[in-house]
Amino acid sequence: METTQIFSQLQEVFRDIFDDSSLVINESTNANDIEDWDSLNHISLISAIEKHFKIKFHLSELQGLKNVGEMVALIERKLEHA
């Protein structure tokens, strides 16, 4: 799956979790950019991403992520090794 496809699908997951159809994410988007991105929504977001892309994250992989761009790169690596 190409980066643009992952990004497009991830956009829909974000909109669903944050219940905001106008939400637009980019590579530098992080928790500080989305008002409702708290710890509970973070867990829901990770779970929804895993379910959508049929992958599983390890806690150690998630701890170092700084933004959506790094999440996309991680999803790409997971999908390549699936």
Furnish the topology, listing elements before pairings:
Blueprint: H1 3-17, H2 39-53, H3 59-63, H4 68-80
Helix pairs in contact: 1-2, 1-4
Overview of the molecule:
Helix 1 (about 5-15) crosses helix 2 (about 40-55). The protein is mainly α and about 80 residues long. The longest helix is centred in the N-terminal third of the chain and has 15 residues, at about 5-15. Helix content is about 60%, strand content about 0%. It has helices at about 5-15, 40-55, 60-65, 70-80.
Helix/strand order:
HHHH
Largest sheet: none
Structural class: mainly alpha
Number of strands: 0
Number of helices: 4
How much is the average pLDDT?
96
Fraction of residues in H or I helices? 55-70%
Keywords for this entry:
single chain, 82 residues, mainly alpha, 59% helix, 0% strand, globular
Task: Describe the structure concisely.
With 82 residues, the protein is an all-alpha fold.
